[in-house]
Design goal:
Largest sheet: none
CATH topology of the largest domain: Arc Repressor Mutant, subunit A
Number of domains: 2
Shape: elongated
Strand content: under 5%
Structural class: mainly alpha
Order of helices and strands: HHHHHHH
Distance between the termini: 51 Å
Number of helices: 7
Radius of gyration: 20 Å
Helix content: over 70%
């Protein structure tokens, strides 16, 4: 009864059929492993929440992989650049990472999904199950905090 709806939901989230099938399968395995504690009435909600959380975890993992690859590529290209520029760039990256790290989890999540992943506010709102206004507020607070911590931002 829930299989097709779960597959569709996962596909709408990730846009990739194979990944959607993987997310759906993982969700059903988690439900099966916890069937003794999940109420039948709440199974559908649990299923969709599990798919959403698995998708968000996959996005976070991909972000880490991409950042690692990007850092590796930039380190290779740095050998041809001015040492002073490289030092300033590293200092700025450190300052930026510290500033991003000091944001609240909600602000950081919205900021990274928008600025790094290129997601629109509506997409972020759907992913996080919050209103677009809440996304706007979190982004506004994140940018305000970053501007305070990094004057050149």
């Amino acid at each position: 009864e829930f299989i097709q709806a779960a597959k569709n939901f996962a596909f709408y989230k990730c846009g990739d059929e194979q990944e959607a099938l993987d997310l759906t399968q993982e969700a059903f395995v988690k439900i099966w492993n916890r069937c003794n504690i999940i109420e039948f009435k709440k199974a559908k909600t649990y299923l969709f929440t599990t798919i959403n959380n698995s998708f968000l975890n996959a996005v976070k993992h991909k972000k880490v992989v991409l950042n690692y690859q990007k850092n590796q590529a930039s380190e290779e290209s740095e050998s041809n650049e001015d040492p002073q520029f490289i030092l300033r760039e590293k200092e700025f990256k450190k300052t930026l990472n510290n500033a991003i790290g000091s944001l609240t989890e909600a602000q950081r999540e919205v900021f990274l999904l928008n600025r790094i992943d290129g997601k629109k506010y509506a997409e972020i709102a759907e992913m996080l199950n919050i209103s677009v206004k809440a996304v706007e507020k979190r982004m506004s607070q994140a940018l305000k905090n970053l501007r305070q911590q990094i004057p050149e931002f």
